[in-house]
Amino acid sequence: MIENDPHSNIITKKISPILLSNQEQLKSIEPFTLSPIPLNNNNNNNSSDEEDDEKSVIVNSVTQVQLPPHIKSISGQQQQQQDDDTDEVLAISSIQGYTQSVYKEILYWISVILTCGIALLVYYWFQIFYINCRYKKCELSRAKYLLIESKDQRFEICPVQTSTDNISTNSSSYVLYRFSKFFYNPDTNNFEKSSIQNSHKKSDLITLVKQGLGNEEVSDLKNLFNENVIKIPLKSIPRLFLEEILHPFFIFQIYSVCLWFSEEYYYYAIAIFIIASVSAILNLREIRQNLLSLERIAYFSCPVEVLRNGQFETVFSIDLVPGDIIKLKQSFTLPCDLTLLTGSVILNEAMLTGESIPVTKYSILPPDLSTSVPEETYNFKAEKRSLLFGGTVIVKLLSHGSDTEVLGMVRETGFQTTKGKLILSIMYPKKSHFKFLSEAMKFIGVLCSIAMIGFAISVWRLYSLGEEGKTIALRALDLITIVIPPALPMAMSVGTGFALGRLKKQQVFCISPNRLNMGGKIQVFCFDKTGTLTEEGLDLFGLLLSNGGSVGNCQFQSMHKSEDITNEQCLNSNPLMKLVMSSCHSLSNIDEKVSGDPLEVKIFQVTNSIIRDESISENHIEMENRKKIYFLERFDFQSKLQRMSVVIKTEDDSHYSLVKGSPEIIKQLCLNETIPLDYDQKLSEFTEKGYRVLSCAYRSVTPLELSQYANRDQLRLQTELNLHFLGFIIMENKMKPESPGIIATLQKANIKTVMVTGDNPLTALSVAHQSGIIKKEQSILFMGVVEQDYINWELVSKDKGDYHRLDPSTLLLDSEEFSDYNLIVTGPVFKKLYHNYLQTGSQKFNNMLKRGVVYARMTPDEKQTLVEELERIGLYVGMCGDGANDCGALKAAHVGISLSETEASIAAPFTSTITNISCCPTLIKEGRASLAVSFKLFQFMGMYSLIQFTSVIFLYFIGSVLGNWMYLYQDLWIIFPLVIFMGMTRPSTKLSIKRPSGRLISGAIVGSLIVHILVCISFQMAVFFLIRSRPWYNDTQIDDENIFTYVTTSLFIFGSFQYLIMAFTFSHGKPFLKPLYTNRFLFGTYLIALFTTLLLLFLPTQKVWTFAQLVILPVSFRLIMFAMVIANLLANILVEFLFYYYKTISKKKKVQNPTLIFSKDIPRDNRITEHTVLLPIS
Questions:
Q1: Residue 416 three-state SS
Q2: How many Cβ atoms are within 10 Å of 182's Cβ, its own excluded?
Q3: How far apart are alpha carbons 560 and 571 in whole angstroms?
Q4: What is residue 636's three-state secondary structure?
Q5: Are 411 and 337 in contact (CB under 8 A)?
Q6: Distance between CA atoms of residues 1090 and 1094, nearest Å
Q7: CA–CA distance, 223 with 162 (Å, rounded to integer)
Q8: What is the DSSP secondary structure assignment for residue 213, as one 8-state letter?
Q9: What are phi and psi of 139, to 5 degrees?
Q10: How far apart are CA 581 and CA 588, in angstroms?
């Protein structure tokens, strides 16, 4: 029965869920509401372009089934806000419906028949043209096909399919777009995506845990959602080869081969066919390998135990649907995203994040399911502590008892999982603003224009010579095939292929090869701090404890160094601090080894305690005196809160809330009378030296107080207020020995280095000094605290001690002396300015991006925003991190490098198993080498085609042509090996201050090519006229095609030398490549080709010259030609030098960059001592 709900605009179908016992229960359950988000529709003629842009987002499916409560959805607007960050790949800009038209269908087939099938190729190449020629536009309700435009202006044609299920006859039409189903909603006249709700009641989940889904519910859900598998469409080799040979360029090559066979140019035609086939096979091999590599990461299937109809049964994971209850096991790789319902698990998330530190997840249901549960609403997005991600591995299970199971509920399946969305982002990367490929196509268009001009000239000249029409047509068409080099596609990719191979040998692995060339353009490189610039682990430096004095007299005790802390008396005399150090953590016991965050491990180990977590009910800490501490609640660290806490119970039935976190936040949560008077002073004293400081606090709680808050967020809020400050834990985070040298290398190459961290800004500043990101001689700003809702900045020059105000509206200094300076930005200020920029478009935010060098107290989302905004202002950005909190930033960067021991990680396009930043300059150098080789090969191939084109045009003027052997010698003996081996040139050992151009159509590139070709044409013209002016010149035709002539021989030999000249000219190494002689294969090939060409010029034999269709030239003219070759070489070298090396260098003295700590501050006039801290730099 179909029901229309006027309030929700949804269609529902009532079925009888097995877990519902009567009709009243059925009525009380809301229908399966998959809420719509507006989708731009081209049929809506009233929408303006601006409105279209605002509406271009994905929608949730209208298809509704009355299923168990966990499958309900939330309001469209709320769902949109939550999914925008993850469903960007599925975001749609516009959608247009098409249906069949008898009139257009007839015209379509007439065009195919009249063109002998050529029209099919045109339709295949131009999909939008095809759909408009064959089908007519229509309303979405009648559409048989949809033309979908993505956010990045890519078009896909998707056939409308009909669902065979019985969910809703009015909503049976759907399309499969990027592996997601979009059902037609007649109420909104849109195709909308299926999804499930983000919130539901815990009591409903308990019911589901006991019964599971029913067969009918599973069937309905299978029709709404795809199979639970991330299956990459792995096309067969024949199909891939077919797609390769249907490429316009390959079709052009086939046309050329057919043309040459008709002219009996058999050898050359076969050679070109082989070259084209090899190019296609190499491209096919690269595509296939990339797909196979991605499939190995993506595909996973395993048997699982699932609860259905009240009983556990074993099925393959491919059959799981959202809402299934599955049993979790030790060493189990999760096949989908789940919500942990019972027990606890410890996961290895290295596959997704690159982070090898285990992560603990907690259930949302109580240990005893028979107990009553408050009717609280559970939110999937908010409760990340219970979310298990597909692809991660269970390291350890913790159940509530020996007879209970650890259960999880399937949340997302297939490509809707977190892993699936990462795979989608690889398959459908953001449209790059990198212009190389698009401008390469434009350059080919220019070559085609030149070919058309040559075609016209050749037709005119051959006609004037009285050639037959067939001969004129064939030779004119020949000229077109000469201008488009047959090996061009291979030449454009060969450099990248060799570079990726070299990176793999250096333990850098790539899952997105198109990002490599972007690496050559990097202008800014961002680094995480802990685990990236500094060592992953921290050493305990000491404790600074409060004396717990009275109000106004609370001070710190003397410093307890690390060697003193192990003394039993130190911690025993401070039992509450010992409680925090032994209990306030997220550690676990795996194989009798403490595992977790290295910082927490170091703190825990000094207490000599033992973790006992064989089961949740017995999860406790055993102190060295055998006393036990039981965990009641654990609130994990959150970046936005900058703290973590636990609620514990001791053996004497005392209850405590123990908290540790950033000193700034803990200070706000503590009672003022417990804060030492010298809190800020001591904090600055240690943070400015680079130590990481954690504040610890506690308060007593009662069982009654704990029972008053059913909601965990409310409980956390209350137990973390009115704390008593205990002291500082001071950690020493040692710099990785490689970091300073690598930072210096990047800075010498004029690559801006930026630190992005969640740590204290003063600690970050110290690490920035140690690593060299900020030079120690640079000035520093006083940093204030958040006092009012505005921002003010001031700079103190270290040399003069004068104040220089920063204009709040521009972030520019009022002093011309300090026209160049840097900023240290805190997360709250970054967020404030970013929101202000979105609202007002103020350039203040952009100026901050250009000046910022250290960003502290940044959340993972803010890190990603920073990278995206740096790219928005036109910078090429690299990001290097350990993957833990950097995944978003790593994916957003042009080049993201995850430092991870896991080779197959999808946390970033690149993964280095050598876990230090030495991979960064290596990748940049390989990127520059790949880009430089691609440019040089493209220039070389362009020059090769134009040189040969010029030779043939001159020969057409005397009615001659190059012979087959001449073509073979030039194309196979000289060009083809040089192209292959030029790609093997290794990058320069030194990272240059220069960056290779990212544009083919630029003044330097185009100007260079024009002058080079003018030089080559001039010398060919000189040879042409010079030989015809010799007294011994004879133009008598002795063969049918007039090949055996002095002009043909001289232009062939001279043209061969010109290819070698251009190869030498474009093989110069500096500043991105090693010199020519270091590439042994290229250098050897070059010498062999040069040697054989010299033999043709100076040591002719009658037999060889006859075979090669040459005539013997007088010795005097050979010497003249050799002299012209030398002159041609010098001229081309001079041109290259003038365009790339001759630059006027002007040296100007620059003032050292001052450094600003950028923070929310109080006005200058109101500055007082307790609000500011001077940061001396030694």
A1: helix
A2: 30
A3: 10
A4: strand
A5: yes
A6: 6
A7: 11
A8: B
A9: -65, 150
A10: 14
Checking phi first, is residue 511 left (phi over 0); if not, alpha (psi -120 to 50) or beta? alpha
The one catalytic residue in 220, 478, 528, 1161 is: 528
- The number of beta carbons lying within 10 Å of the beta carbon of residue 305 is 15
- For residues 33 and 62, give the distance between their C-alpha atoms in angstroms, rounded to a whole number: 7
* Beta bridge pairs of residue 377: 201
Q: Is the pTM of this model over 0.70?
A: yes
pLDDT at position 376: 63
Residue 778 phi/psi, 5° resolution? -75, 150
Q: Residue 309, class by beta-carbon neighbours within 10 Å (0-12 exposed, 13-18 middle, 19+ buried)? A: middle
Contact partners, residue 710, CB within 8 Å, separation at least 6: 374, 376
Q: For position 1060, what pLDDT does the model report?
A: 95
Q: Tell me the C-alpha distance between 96 and 199, whole Å.
A: 34
In order of start, what are the domains of the chain with their CATH numbers?
A: 2-197 (no CATH), 303-427 (2.70.150.10), 431-506+924-1140 (1.20.1110.10), 539-732 (3.40.1110.10)
Query: Using an 8 Å Cβ cutoff, are 354 and 905 in contact?
Result: yes
> Would you give the DSSP letter of residue 170?
G
- Rounded CA separation 522/840 (Å): 30
Contacts by 678-684, CB closer than 8 A, 24 or more apart: 678/555, 678/556, 679/725, 680/1170, 680/1173, 681/1173, 682/544, 682/556, 682/728, 683/728, 683/762, 684/762, 684/1173, 684/1175
Distance of CA 970 to the CA centre of its chain: 42
Residue with tokens 């909503």: 171
Which among 621, 590, 587, 589 has a CA at the least distance from the CA of 602? 587
Q: In the chain, how long is the greatest CA-to-CA distance?
A: 119
Q: What DSSP designation does 970 have? A: I
Distance, CA of 208 to CA of 447 (rounded, Å) = 67
Q: How far, rounded to the nearest angstrom, does the alpha carbon of residue 888 sit from its chain's CA centroid? A: 8
| 49 noted as active-site residue | no
H-helix segments, 333-468: 350-353, 418-427, 436-464
User: Radius of gyration over alpha carbons of the chain, in Å?
Assistant: 36
Residue 304 parent element (H or E): strand 303-308
Element (H, E) at 1083: helix 1080-1098
CA distance 928 to 934: 10
pLDDT at 807: 57
Walking along the chain (1178 residues) 10 residues at a time, the average pLDDT comes out as 32 28 29 32 37 30 39 34 54 87 91 89 88 89 88 85 58 82 84 73 75 84 84 83 82 81 76 76 79 83 88 89 87 88 80 69 70 61 77 80 76 87 80 70 79 83 79 79 74 83 89 84 90 80 78 70 64 82 84 78 83 67 77 82 88 90 89 86 82 90 81 83 90 86 91 87 81 73 43 47 52 52 79 83 81 84 90 90 77 87 69 88 92 88 90 88 86 88 90 81 79 94 93 76 85 95 87 89 94 88 76 90 96 85 40 47 32 30
Q: Distance between CA 343 and CA 155 in Å, rounded?
A: 46
The number of residues making up the chain comes to 1178
